[in-house]
Amino acid sequence: MVDLTAAQLMLHQMVREFSEKEIRPNDMAIDQQRFFVNGIYQKLIDNGFLGLMLPEQYGGAGFDAIATAQTIYDLAVGNASVAVTLEGHYKTLDQLLKYGQPSLLERYLPSANQRIFAFSMTEPSGGSDHSTLGSTAVRQGENWVLNGNKIMITNGGLAEVYCVLVKTAPEEFSVFLIDQNMPGFKFGKRENFLGLTGTPIAEIFMENIVVPADHLLGKVGQGHEIGDSAHADARILMGAVAAGIIEHELEIAVAYAYQRKSGQFRLTELQAIQRKLADIALAKETTTLLYQEAAALKQQRRPYAEVAAMAKTHGSRQAVRAGDDALQILAGYGYSLDYPVEHLIRDARALEIAEGTVEKMRGEITKLEVATRI
Amino acid sequence: MTKIPEVWIFAEQQLGQIEPTVFQLLTRAREIAPRFKVVAVLFETPTQHLAATLAEYGPDKILVVQDPRLAQVADAEQATLLAHLVQRDQPNSFLFGATALGRSLAPRLQAKLQTGLTADCLALHFEDELLVQTKPSYGDNIMCEIVCPDKRPQMATVRPNTFAAQKVEPDRSRPELEVVTDLPWPEVAHFQIIAEKKVATPQTGLSQAKRIIALGRGAADAASKTVARSWAQKIDAQIGVTRPLTDGGGFSVKDQIGQSGQTVAPELLFCLGISGAVQFLSGITNAKVIVAVNPDPQAAIFSVADYGFVGEANGFLTALQQVDQRKQAALK
Amino acid sequence: MKIVVCIKQVPESNQVKLDPVTHNLVRQGVAGKINPFDRHAIQAALAIKAQVGGEVIVISMGPADNEYCLREGLAMGADRAILLSARAFAGSDTLATGYTLSQAIRKLGAVELVFFGRQAVDADTGQVGPIVAEFLGWPQLTLASSLTLKDRRLEGMRRLGDLEQTVALTLPAVVTASNDLNQPGYLQPRMIKASFQQEITVWQETDLAADPLRLGVSGSPTVVRKVMAPQRKQQETVFLATDPQQAALDLHAALHAKNLI
Ligand SMILES: Cc1cc2nc3c(=O)[nH]c(=O)nc-3n(C[C@H](O)[C@H](O)[C@H](O)COP(=O)(O)OP(=O)(O)OC[C@H]3O[C@@H](n4cnc5c(N)ncnc54)[C@H](O)[C@@H]3O)c2cc1C
Ligand SMILES: Cc1cc2nc3c(=O)[nH]c(=O)nc-3n(C[C@H](O)[C@H](O)[C@H](O)COP(=O)(O)OP(=O)(O)OC[C@H]3O[C@@H](n4cnc5c(N)ncnc54)[C@H](O)[C@@H]3O)c2cc1C
């Protein structure tokens, strides 16, 4: 386990309290009403969550990778949708900080304390494979002109700034920053997803959007690298979301099993139930270790993409499985829409798809193992 | 002759009404210090005459400070007056109710006297002349035994409703009465009371309620609801329900107690016609005193109840209201 | 206006248990945090400062790691922080704590308002505020549920049971804050970061012109003799008579004796 510094600890205590008081009491309502009820979104802005990992020079708090992942975990224990909304924002800011040109950052990043930024790769033709992308950017003097259609964007509609992966030549991929205020920017429909229903996930259209040259992230042709980097940063946080969901599942399952009696036994005294409870606890611990390890590697500027992929691969499956165990322990109440367990499973299920499917991640992990050994 | 040790009790009053904790402390002091002199210390205006009420609980002496200025008095002034009395009589110990006033006044007095004060005690006993005080800490998770070996008086504030008050036989209550009118009044207090008014406890929702009457499926009929409502009004309680009652009939989810509803922590909880499913019980683990009424003697609710009545809620509550009316009438 | 807020560092959780062998307190989660009630005190001080200007100084007495709660105070917006830390302060009960704090307030000079939380969540006494008021010879408003400052007159309300008092005090004065006084917000991440850049002043007994006999253990009349786990009485249900009249009579008497009705 990582040791938090005093400043990280203070942040953690604040976020946990925020999560317990502002988010958890709204967990069921967020799921059922499919938005951030009771002004939660505004509270995230007012309490400085958007700028949490943004450097001080842009008006942020400048917290590091470890504190950021801990924050996502603490929020996810309250409600996973809230955590995923910030996950999408943070991973986008990470790419801007890594690849953005200074003039662009100066214009845009101060506003990231108030506005959500999103990262968009997926298109109707496919998410795992980008070779079929239809979106394009064409050079026009000093500017670029963007066209295309992007779907399934975390925070689509809520976010005001988007980084989009497009083709700048038939086999050349690049990332540009666009703003919802630009002429030619249009919102499409919101996805009707099974879980994470609080987070809006939607499509956008680009119709001859003209952007200045400094809206290009990195260099022309660096698109895949930036996309991979975004995935790596996102997967640490998705591991933290998974751990948070499992903690929520564990909390419900233990409380219920302790109080519920069968004959003169508490459910916690039955071996069949103990097996499930112990597995849920184990799942939480392993997932936590993985995402914290990935965050620590990132903090130490060592390679972290593989462990990040592991955190999400392992954590997402464990969160679904632990939810299934918790449902079984609560039995009829677990299966009821009036109790939270079923939506935790639906939320967890998204983590096996978003930010790269588990199949794709296993491919990447294998590739890295082969590359380092052979 | 050595002086008989004295246990003093501050007879806190509000607008002419003695705070109930005072009666509890008088009763308790007589139990734990039968050989000591139990003294009630009363501050009142010359028109209030509250000593008689105190006498019913059997103090050996009532020490009354009468002054019209006591109608408008600062904590600091009361502490100064009490310090004069303590310095004159040198009591062994001095107890206050751990009320808002007791907890404001006692520490000021303690600082003046440079003695020890134990807060919010739940148990008291004497070892010879040493007062052994048990107080909770860490939100009642730990109990500490605290003593003040070298300084006198030994001071403590005591949590309200920890001890039961018991009146003494009328012929046993002939306390000595001393009225003090010539204490030097403290200098300027820089403090002024602008207004005072009695307020009812605000209705802040179930989770904050001090008294709750909870209705379950077995008390869902109109007659039961009506008696429950009138009893609730009488004892200033709020009504809560179990999940089946939230579907219409005047109750909604916000009235629901339990896992998917509200968690409550009342001092007194009536559970009427409630079987005691875990989902409900998980919401009432912090209730202090639970009264359960259910026709089924096997109902799980009885396993958590302090008082149980096996029978119908309607008949029982009606009887309880009648008893209450008779008692109220007898008081007048 | 120079405003002081006294704050205490308390264990992060009240879930303390007793070691069955050593009978020592086992504190889960060694981390500490600011006594939650003290946040209301700081918030109240900041509100007065916003109105009349001046500075808010947070003071805490305790071991070196109490620096943490002072940084929380700074993160809320206090201007500076003083840690009272010395061997000689160890083992203070409320009387010695109150004395030490009042000496520090005297040393600061020209302080006009001192705020306290209603009580510390660990030892739970709520005595330190009134003790400091007495040592300074200042008027007090305990458990303030509202507060306004006009000229040098502080007007506020407090609840004494069913009684609501509106009172006025002349400065300098001591106020202990109730939870109803305000709603402190969450710490801003940016302010948390900034609080770790600030210097914290440390004062020892030699800085305070204090009487050594009134400090720490020697200045503490109370002795904690024993620490015990509370006895959770096994739930025993008293079944009332089967006759509703008799049952009602018995229950009424029982509840009345407990002052519940
Ligand atoms: C909650 C949520 C949030 C999302 N947020 C974003 C976002 O912010 N930005 C964004 O760009 N996209 C986002 N997406 C889209 C997501 O990235 C894609 O759904 C994902 O990449 C898979 O793409 P696809 O749905 O087109 O499936 P496909 O790529 O068509 O895959 C179909 C199946 O084939 C498997 N498969 C495909 N290729 C391979 C391969 N090479 N090796 C092994 N198996 C393979 C997949 O694992 C999957 O099982 C989000 C999705 C969800 C559910
Ligand atoms: C289990 C236990 C039980 C105790 N019981 C007693 C007892 O009954 N009587 C007794 O005299 N002592 C008692 N003590 C000692 C007491 O805890 C210390 O004296 C402590 O320093 C102050 O008292 P408190 O925690 O009750 O604070 P409180 O009086 O409850 O605190 C009120 C306010 O005073 C301020 N404050 C309190 N402590 C400090 C500080 N160190 N620095 C700055 N500001 C502060 C804060 O604003 C706080 O909100 C006990 C200690 C323990 C561990």
**What is the number of helical segments of chain A per DSSP (H or I, 4+ residues)?**
11
Biggest interface, CB < 8 A: B-C, 90 and 78 residues
Low-confidence stretches of chain A: none
Please bin the fraction of helical residues of chain C. 25-40%
CATH class of the largest domain in chain A: Mainly Alpha
The distinct bound ligands, ions and cofactors come out as: flavin-adenine dinucleotide
Question: Which class do the helix and strand fractions of chain C yield?
Answer: alpha/beta
Enumerate the strands of the largest sheet of chain A in spatial order, edge to edge or round the barrel.
1-4-5-8
The number of domains of chain A: 3
Head-to-tail CA distance between termini of chain A: 31 Å
Largest sheet of chain C: 9 strands, mixed
- Radius of gyration of chain A equals 21 Å
Biggest pleated sheet of chain A = 4 strands, mixed
Shape of chain C: globular
Seen as an oligomer or otherwise, the chain set is: heterotrimer
State which percent range the strand residues of chain C make up.
25-35%
Summarize model confidence as the mean pLDDT of chain A. 96
SSE arrangement of chain A, N to C: HHHHHHEEEEEEEEHEEHHHH
What would you call the shape of chain A? globular
**What percentage of residues of chain A falls in helices of 4 or more residues?**
40-55%
- Termini separation of chain C: 48 Å
How would you sum up this structure, described in words?
- By secondary structure, chain A is of the alpha+beta class.
- Chain A has three domains: 6-113, Acyl-CoA dehydrogenase/oxidase, N-terminal domain (Butyryl-Coa Dehydrogenase, subunit A, domain 1); 117-221, Butyryl-CoA Dehydrogenase, subunit A, domain 2, CATH 2.40.110; 224-373, Butyryl-CoA Dehydrogenase, subunit A, domain 3 (Up-down Bundle), CATH 1.20.140.10.
- Chain A contains eleven helices and ten strands.
- Chain A has a four-stranded mixed beta sheet, with helices on one face. A four-stranded antiparallel beta sheet of chain A has the order 2-3-7-6, with helices on one face.
- In chain A, helix 7 runs parallel beside helix 9, helix 8 (271-299) packs antiparallel against helix 9 and helix 9 packs antiparallel against helix 10 (341-350).
- The radius of gyration of chain A is 21 Å and the shape is globular.
- By secondary structure, chain B is an alpha/beta fold.
- Chain B folds into two domains: 6-180, Rossmann fold (3-Layer(aba) Sandwich); 204-331, Rossmann fold.
- Chain B has seven helices and 18 strands.
- In chain B, strands 7-11-6-1-4-5-12 form a seven-stranded parallel beta sheet, with helices on both faces. In chain B, strands 15-14-16-17-18 form a five-stranded parallel beta sheet, covered by helices on one side.
- Chain B is elongated.
- Chain C is an alpha/beta fold.
- In chain C, helix 2 crosses helix 5 and helix 3 crosses helix 4.
- The longest helix of chain C has 17 residues, at 36-52.
- The N and C termini of chain C lie far apart (48 Å).
- The mean pLDDT of chain C is 92.
- Chains B and C meet through helix 3, helix 4, strand 7, strand 9 and strand 10 of B and strand 3, helix 3, helix 4, strand 9 and strand 10 of C.
- The complex binds flavin-adenine dinucleotide (2 copies).
- One flavin-adenine dinucleotide sits between chains C (6-8, 35, 37-38, 41, 59-62, 92-95, 97, 101, 116-117, 119-120, 122-123, 125-129, 222, 224) and B (116-119, 135, 137, 144, 146).
